[in-house]
Amino acid sequence: MSTSDIVDPVTEHLLDDPRITAVGLFFEAHTGLVDRFSAQLAEHGLSSVEFEVLMRLARSPGHELRMSDLAAQTSLSTSGVTRVVDRMDRDGLIRRRACPTDRRSSYAVVTPAGMRRLDETLPAHLDLIARWFTGLLGPEQLTALLEALRTIRDAVRPEATAGARGTAAAGAER
Amino acid sequence: MSTSDIVDPVTEHLLDDPRITAVGLFFEAHTGLVDRFSAQLAEHGLSSVEFEVLMRLARSPGHELRMSDLAAQTSLSTSGVTRVVDRMDRDGLIRRRACPTDRRSSYAVVTPAGMRRLDETLPAHLDLIARWFTGLLGPEQLTALLEALRTIRDAVRPEATAGARGTAAAGAER
DNA sequence: AAACAACTATACACGAGGCAACATTCCCTA
DNA sequence: TAGGGAATGTTGCCTCGTGTATAGTTGTTT
Questions:
Q1: Worst-scoring range by mean pLDDT, A31-35, A157-161, B4-8, B138-142?
Q2: Are residues A147 and B24 in contact, defined by beta-carbon separation less than 8 angstroms?
């Protein structure tokens, strides 16, 4: 085999592929936003996942969701959801409720304290979004971005499409 | 729609804010892509962060980067970089090199085996990107998306802007 | 020259999350 | 009316990454 002299011209060329730079842009923007957001959320005693759990529950009818549905929406494993709910239950933000029809499953439901916490957190969070995301783009640029993102999201994550408010039947398709 | 008790009308209203749906779209698309990609990377024995480390090193001059610069680019902590490099050093994908001018710092440099691993992994990875990301959008839609992403990335993560190939002085602006 | 501040990498303890095993419950069929 | 198979949530064990403290190195100031 030809050895060490030639490093690897093929790989060298692939590294500059526009597809690589595209995902690089996407992922770097994501981590940047996450850093900004999580710093603000930490001031209110919430981690990123805890905030997401709180949001997804609050947007659901009755402010509650079954554990497995919550896992599907957050792309956490079921055990991960169990532990997050344990934590937030201990903190009084959400509580468990036995499912009356199916004794296997249980609901996670936001407590009044949880809603209050969300109320405290959301305004500053929305400001942050406007500052580092939506506010940086022109109106038509923003709509174009959202349309592209929606296309990708729907393709790559069909089970989370029900996450939008108003769409009934969360987690019905399986 | 059940007329459930409205706990907090303010928060209720904020939950439907378009900014929330915007970041929701962004983050859900991200996690979806990460899931797809990491599944494929796992087949080649690489985690997502290991792949990113390998990529960032391979794109750098000499296929090497200082530990702290690597930490800055990947938004991992310095200790996190130490552990990843330990692992990949043990697997023979990269090795450490002492810095001749500054005895405090050390370099992480890709080994030939590491470049070979990258060579094995990249083609399928590029196919996956085309399938779930770039290929889903029209040309003008894609460029619009990339421009918007670049705007956000540059605003939110200025230290990683040097990640693009060809831009000299990685980690020079501080 | 000596003290001091700024960096760089590592060691250690901790929390977070995933996988696999497990107990329980539901559903369907023989 | 059992009984097998699928579904649901929880727990033990493991890996991974962070924050803090530590040691070693370099440059600066008096």
A1: B4-8
A2: no
Instruction: Report how many domains make up chain A.
Output: 1
* Measured CA distances, B112 to A62, A137, B104, B119 (Å): 57, 43, 26, 10
- Quote the tokens at residue B96: 């450490």
CATH number of domain containing A48: 1.10.10.10
B90 belongs to a structural domain? yes
Q: Is A20 contained in some domain? A: yes
A5-14, A40-49, B109-118: segment of lowest average pLDDT: A5-14
**Contact at 8 Å (CB) between B153 and A32?**
yes
Q: In chain A, which residues from 88 to 127 place their CB closer than 7 Å to nucleic acid strand D?
A: 96, 102, 104-106
A85 within some domain: yes
A161 band by pLDDT with thresholds 50, 70 and 90: low
Identify the sign of the CA torsion A132, B34, B144, B137. negative
Does residue B161 have a pLDDT over 60?
no
Q: How far is the CA of A38 from the C1' of D21 (A)?
A: 25
- Are the beta carbons of B32 and A152 separated by less than 8 Å? yes
CA of A49 to C1' of C11 (A): 29
Domain encompassing residue B119: 18-157
Amino acid residing at B173: E
Domain for residue B124, yes or no? yes
**Can you tell me the ipTM of this complex?**
0.89
